[in-house]
Amino acid sequence: MPCGMRRTIRTIGAIILLLPTVTQAQLQPPSAAGAAAQPAVVVPPPPAPGDLPEFARPDDPWIYRGTDIPWDQEWLFGEMPNGVRYAVRDNGVPPGQVSIRVRIDAGSLYEKDSERGFAHLIEHLLFRQSKYLGDGEAIPHFQRLGASLGNDTNAITSPTQTVIQLDLPNARGPVLEDSFRLLSGMIREPTLSEANIRTEVPIVLAERRERGGAQARAADASRELFFSGQLLASRNPIGTVPTLEAANQESVRAFYRRWYRPENAVVVVSGDANPMMLAKLVEKYFGDWAASGKPDPQPDFGTPTAPDGADPANPVGETRVLVEPGQTRSLVYAIVRPWHEVTDNIEYNRGLLLDSIAQAIINRRLEARARGGGTFLFASAERDKSARSTDTTYVSFAPLTANWKSALNDVRGVLADALAQPPSQAEIDREIAEYDVIFANMAQQASIQAGSKLADDIVNAVDIREAVAAPDTILAVFRDMKARFTPNEVFAHTQELLKGDVIRALYLTPEAGEADAEAVRAAMLTPVEVAVDARSAAEAISFADLPEIGTPAEPTSREILFSNGRERQVEKLTFANGVRVLLMPTSNEPGRATVRVRFGGGYRSFAKEEGAYAALGSMALVSSGLGPLGQNELDQIATGRKLGFSFSMDEASFRFEGQTRAEDVEDQLYLFAAKLALPRWDPAPVERAKAASLLSYASLATDPNGVLNRDLDWLLHNRDPRFATPDPEAMNKVTPEGFQQVWSRILQQGPVEVDVFGDIDREKVVAALSRTFGALAERQPLPADVESQRFTFPAANARPLALEHNGDADQAAAVMAWPIGAGSAGLPQSRKTELLAEVFSNRLMDAMRERAGASYAPYVGSRWPLGVDSGGTFVAMAQLPPAQTDAFFAAADKIADDLAANGPTADELARATEPVLQALWRMQSGYTFWMNQLEGGAFDANRVTYLPTIIADYQNTTPAEIQALAARYLAARDGFRLAVLPSDKAGSAGMQTGVPAAGVPTTVGR
Which of 252, 434, 485, 660 is most buried per CB count within 10 Å? Predict the structure, then answer.
């Protein structure tokens, strides 16, 4: 059950806790109040054994021992004499795929001081070489089977576990068995040789370097403070430079022998295969695994302790101030309690649900305070059980100004109110309605849960020492306990949430001298006034009370636009006002539907001087409201419904999108149509978005990745100011009145296409469209100068352009880019350029990772815009040490020239093509694939014409075609070169330095 209610710690500003990469449950000791009144949940009998594998235990599933949570009968559990446990199930989502997870109960908390980073290093070494796979063969082998690196073949190391992950497509017969054999060799007999260690350590150090910088220091500081006195304070999974450089064959093997033992292993398999066969494969390849000697005892992770003489009502302990120039101000305080292993039963999970309601009410109040003129940009309270070390509530916020004390008092005032009196029943009922929609939708979609997620849920439950529950069980428990959601009971859980043994606080500031640890501690100890004005007293809003869009109008034409079997029939509707619609009802994904609205001209619609308003659109357009609904009312009207309202834009169009369900499609359509027809222009969201931009701008200069996020899109569009990240000078000129003027014009212009795909009733949706988008006034056409725009690419430069960052001296980034085609007429060729990028990526990975770990994860991508006839890019980039930038450009040049002269080998192309094909075949089972491919097809016939050739365009590509593409796009002209270097090296690197253009400077002082 906890897998359905698990939350992650919310990251605020730069305070990022380096905790497990898997999520953890918010846990709460069960409350006895009302327990006897709860209806019993009966555990169903186990299935008949039948032809079971030798060690399968359907009558005694190990994960459910000691709990009354009903067993999820889809899983078959087993436990072998050597201690290996397994869980397998049949799952056909996506078809043909089998997801395998091998979990080892050892992470960075299991390391000795001299072994820091060894758990993660061994994860790397498993893929380097093993019993059945030679040096560097693992990744290429699985690529040939269609498993892409990162997405399908991956691993994680957390403080408490190491997990090898393989999502194997087309996993049939011999391929599946051979993959089990290879994985068993990787886990049981990796080649932990001195040579392999010397190869992998630089790659791990490159990963460490690329994850370093100000944010890493903030994460380290928060971990050291919040887990003071415990192992977690000093056990970052990435390790330390001295211990990694000192790693050798003997020391690494010693760690492996201690923890890579069968009794520490769990194998989880979920996929499109017979579970009996899966269980037998686990038993065959892991059943004879033996380890010598007795296992080591589990390490003592330590317990948080309260400071001597602390006030039990406000036990403030150690506080700390971290100064990081350029970073956004943020303050996090942790209310820390000891971690205790729990009895994961139904009553315990009822407590979790009460916790969730209490926490949701607090966070809604904090958000209301921020929107209503609070002194903080945003704030949250999140409970998390961290790495089986603490049970902590993290209160996080970002002050709007240097007056952090006012922001702290503001946040604490809201929490003081939560501790002073119970919430209202109306507040509770609102959150109940939200959760009911979530859990009901989970139960409705139980049959389409991805096998990879189901496998991860088991792994994560094992990690936190809990069980799992089927979605219908979660829903049943939630609905059966609604009588427990009373003000007094939620109040009791609120008090537990906001009290602990010790409170520790960390303030991150860009300004030295702004605060010290004692000032933060004194502010935490200062009594605060109860802030009662954040409580919501709003009455319910009904869609029936909202103004109509206009006069309803039925479509003037309906036609089948595309058909690929009865489940994949796409209908095109045309309305008299020019709106066009694509409809695709499906039945294989119950409870899921998506509404997407494409409109207007995208970035083309802005004048050159309106770039700042383009940037603010993503942050403020939706929240500025519609009709009578402001941001708070938009939240309120969505209560008890599944609605979404995301906004994005590209060169050619704007997009609204919402994930919904059949019963809420009409309301979803109304929201989007009303935003076009009845826009509201509340100034507060614009001012808030403006403040967020101003607060975060300087942080973009503190590492190479931030500079690339800030400037790369702008540079690749030849310094078009519409693609620039607005600097403070530009942002300070923005006004709510200017925002309204720009966006009110844009919302009225250009074509509108509405796509509704998923589990929908076709005729009900058509009727809803007639009342919403069919009722819109006729749109204004895009101006001729907007339609005719072309995007240009920067000139090639033999001397790379050098930009500066203010971060660590050992961090740099290098980019090489070329212009390629654009437009839907080139769709077949766009697919082939993706394969060129994959081939290039594999070569660049080999060149840079093996060059003494020059880069951990180079990136190569091809972007071919379909809605415009210009602006396509082919980009290769890597993060690396400054001294390696020349090596990157040399490697990229060499790869481009060789591919243009000789093309790839047949094996290289197969390694690039097979993962793409397998991904396509898997994605075709979901409606989202068809929606993404046909989006825009109501106006652009090429999207429909070239859809049937998608498989052939990849599958039939030849090495000669890749060679020709490389010659046309990569060798026909020199690339655009960019380096992001530390500020003290950029001017002396023999490169051209950044110069202002179009009023937008390129130095870090922007």
Answer: 660
